[in-house]
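Writing this down once: the sequence line spells out the residues, with the fold written below as integer tokens. This is how one looks:
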Amino acid sequence: MEAYIGELLGTFILILVGHSVNANVSLAKTNGNNSGWIVTTWGWGIAVFIAVFMTADISGAHINPAVTIGLASAGNFEWALVPGYIAAQMIGAFVGALCVWLQFRDHFDETEDPAAKLGVFSTAPAIPNTSINLFCETIATFVLVLGVLYIAAPDVGLGALDALPVGLLVFGIGMGMGGTTGYAINPARDLGPRLAHAVVPIKGKGSNDWGYAWIPVAGPTLGSIIAAVVYRILPF
């Protein structure tokens, strides 16, 4: 139970900080409005750093179903714990997104663009192309999970000292690979907040884009499994 609470807390912190960055950059009349992609990617890297540092010694700081599935597929985590970890991550992401909505509620009301409002909660492709969008999420998550597998200690997960390299890993992925789909690389990071967007009363919020929502879930899951297979095949 302590580990599940750690995953809930870590994912909550990840989403609270990361989606606040999205809101600060995208919503009208914030002090950070239109501050750009570098602010967004740095902010998400720092969000990962904080969440991992806080919860590494509690749960191994997966804070991402793709990481949990990747570690289990590589034989470094018990499959019996996977459902509980994913449930905790989804709850943490949903609650974190609710808090971001409350914090920026006035700014949501001042923003006219429905896509900008949805973009605070979830990812979207810069150019819609199902096969390419799926590939982008798959390959970016492959890099993330393979990196985590080499950073994390076997049968333990991430430790507090791993927080900085993992944060920098996410920052690098965002800077280099994130511009096509917004680099969800985490099913909980996209689906939990997308569900929050569906239930909160935001004026003029528009569609939840459920037609795209499967890609930030399927791509990271597939990428994590491929990373685990490669990790087990490689002789080092």
Observations:
- The domain at 2-233 is CATH 1.20.1080.10 (Glycerol uptake facilitator protein).
